[in-house]
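tokens incoming
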């Protein structure tokens, strides 16, 4: 088979690898001189919709490909839900490192279910776009993973035997038990709203509170979630808006409930830098959730005492410099929201 491209960039979540992935990658290997396979959403914490880490998804993919995997170069790319240019820079950086600056003819292979269309649209215009055919229904596959033995057995026809073997082992782990509990919780939560006469849209508030300590080191106020979904993950304080309260009041209420921050409403309102709306339809497993993040910058000084309460296991001030290594431990898109705001207002 003649090689049409110098490089092929294949971007996917591979959650998990299925027979279609194997067939497609084997085909692409014949189209390009070198193939770069990027595991997408590599910076996301585990959740019921994505229960495997990037390393685990690569292991599953390599198992499914067998010896074919030896001919590919593997890498990682973050989710970047609010930064298409950041996504494009990360992808082109990977390819540049592989190609040594001379990429030649490039094709990019990905589906909207794996990478947002605006992110793919930010890639170089001279790259040929290839949209692969739709694969198995991801939600149905996850239902089978989390289902009983009979439901799980149906995956045997969808994934390579080596992948099925690894998934069988995964179902015996504590991680699987936690993800299954979250999956069933979310299922029940969504079902409870089926009585509504129209699709439900939830409104929430989050609080991005920043304060420099006496040494001038900026800190961010975070909580660890105490319940599912996202139990134990880092998040900004926040929660659902009550029917009878304005957004600002809901944000302040959630801040008090989850952190006990002893700063008056008047002081906080004077420190408000702005309110940012995040409305990615896929940002939450629980359904369509539109959040309003209130950004406060408190005067420098001794950090106020905080204590976790309500939905928060505990609350803590963390140095901003310590945040990046924790990127893959944040609930849903909270890290991306923090990054988006701070790049624009600090």
């Amino acid at each position: 088979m003649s090689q049409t491209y110098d490089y092929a960039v294949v971007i996917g979540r591979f959650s998990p690898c299925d027979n279609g992935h194997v067939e497609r990658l084997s085909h692409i290997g014949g189209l390009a001189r070198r193939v770069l396979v990027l595991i997408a959403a590599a910076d996301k914490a585990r959740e019921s919709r994505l229960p495997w880490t990037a390393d685990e998804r690569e292991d599953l993919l390599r198992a499914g490909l067998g010896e074919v995997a030896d001919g590919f170069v593997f890498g990682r790319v973050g989710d970047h839900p609010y930064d298409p240019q950041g996504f494009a820079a990360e992808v082109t950086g990977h390819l540049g490192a592989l190609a040594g600056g001379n990429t030649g003819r490039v094709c990019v292979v990905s589906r909207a279910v794996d990478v947002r269309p605006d992110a793919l649209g930010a890639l170089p215009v001279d790259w040929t776009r290839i949209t692969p055919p739709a694969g198995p229904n991801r939600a149905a596959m996850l239902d089978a993973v989390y289902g009983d033995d009979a439901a799980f057995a149906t995956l045997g026809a969808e994934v390579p035997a080596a992948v099925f073997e690894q998934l069988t082992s995964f179902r015996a782990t504590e991680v699987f038990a936690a993800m299954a509990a979250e999956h069933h919780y979310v299922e029940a939560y969504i079902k409870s709203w089926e009585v509504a006469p129209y699709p439900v849209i939830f409104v929430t508030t989050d609080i991005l509170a920043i304060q420099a300590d006496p040494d001038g080191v900026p800190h961010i106020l975070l909580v660890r979630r105490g319940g599912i979904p996202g139990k134990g993950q880092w998040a900004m304080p926040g929660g659902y808006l009550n029917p009878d309260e304005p957004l600002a009041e809901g944000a302040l209420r959630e801040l008090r409930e989850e952190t006990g921050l002893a700063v008056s409403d008047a002081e906080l309102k004077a420190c408000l830098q702005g309110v940012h709306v995040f409305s990615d339809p896929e940002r939450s497993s629980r359904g369509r959730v539109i959040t309003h993040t209130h950004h406060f910058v408190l005067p420098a000084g001794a950090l106020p005492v905080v204590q976790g309460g309500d939905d928060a296991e505990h609350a803590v001030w963390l140095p901003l410099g310590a945040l990046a290594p924790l990127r893959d431990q944040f609930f849903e898109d909270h890290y991306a929201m923090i990054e988006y705001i701070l790049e624009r207002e600090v």
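note: DSSP finds eleven helices and twelve strands in the chain.
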